Amino acid sequence: MERSTTTKIQKSNLVKKASRVKEPSQVKATIGWKEQIDLPEFGLTGIPAKIDTGARTSVLHCSHIRLIQRDNKRFVEFVPLDASFQDAWGKQQKWTLPFHSERTIKNSFGQEENRYVVKTVVRMFGQEYPIELSLRDRSDMEFPMLLGRSFIREKFLVDVSRSNLNRSNIKKTS
User: Fold this and answer.
1) What is the pLDDT of residue 38?
2) Rounded CA gap, 123 and 166, in Å?
3) Total-model pTM
C-alpha cells in the first residue's frame, strides 16, 4: 500500500514538472546588454537601447513633452529622439498619443521625478511587443532608450556578454 502511494506522489510530481516546461513557442529569446530596436508606430528603426534590469519602466528620449486635452480626453504630445532620428522625409515629427499614466520614477541619480507614460509597440526579432514608455529628455545620456524589466520579463533572457543580437538575427533571417 505504501509503495502505491509513493508511486502516485512521484507521478504527481512529474506532471507538475511537465506543466512548467515551456512549449517551443514560449521559449525566451536572448538579448544582449544593448540592442537596436524599432518603433514601428513612429516609423523609427535602429534605435540604440540599453537593457536595464535595474529599471522597472522603459524610457524613450523625447523633447517638447506636454500633456494636452482634446474632446475631454488627455493626450501626450512629444518629439521622439533627436535630429539624428528623422522620419522618411528628413524631419523630426511631433507625435500625439493617448495619455496612459503619470508615474513617479527614480532617475539614475536616485531623484524622484514625474513622467508621462504612453503605450506603443516595439519590434524585435521580427515580432511586435506592446510596451509602456515613460518620456524624458535623455540628451545627456549615451542611449536614447532604456528597456526596463517590466518589458523584458517573460519575453527575453539577458546575456550581458553579448550585444545587438536582435540585429544579427534579422540579418541572418533576411
Assistant:
1) 95
2) 9
3) 0.77
